[in-house]
Amino acid sequence: MKRQVPLALCFLFGVAMIYTQFSPHQYSDAIYKEVIKWGLIISPFALVLAVVTLIQTHASRIRFRAEHWQYSFIVFIGMIAMVLAGVPFGEQNTVLVWLYDNVQVPMDATMFSLLAFFIASAAFRAFRARAFEATLLLITAMFVMLGNIPVGDLIWETLMSWTPWEDGASWLRQWILDVPNTAARRGIILGVSLGVISQSIRIILGIERSYLGGGD
Amino acid sequence: MLEKFMNMDRRIIFLLVALVVIIPTLIPVRLPITVSEPTQKLYDYIEQLPSGSNIMLAFDYGPSSLAEPEPMAKAVMQHCFSRGIKVIGMTLFPSTVTLADRLMKKIADENNAVYGQDYVFLGYRPGTLPVILGMGTNIANVFDKDYQDTPLSEIPMMADVKNYDQISLLLDLASSSTTEAWIIYANTKYDLQIAAGVTAVIIAQMYPYLQTGQLVGMMPGYLGAAEYEKLLNAPGDGTVGLNTASFAHLLIIILVILGNVAFFMQRRKEA
Question: Which end of chain B is more exposed for a tag (fewer CB within 10 A), N or C?
Answer without folding.
Answer: C
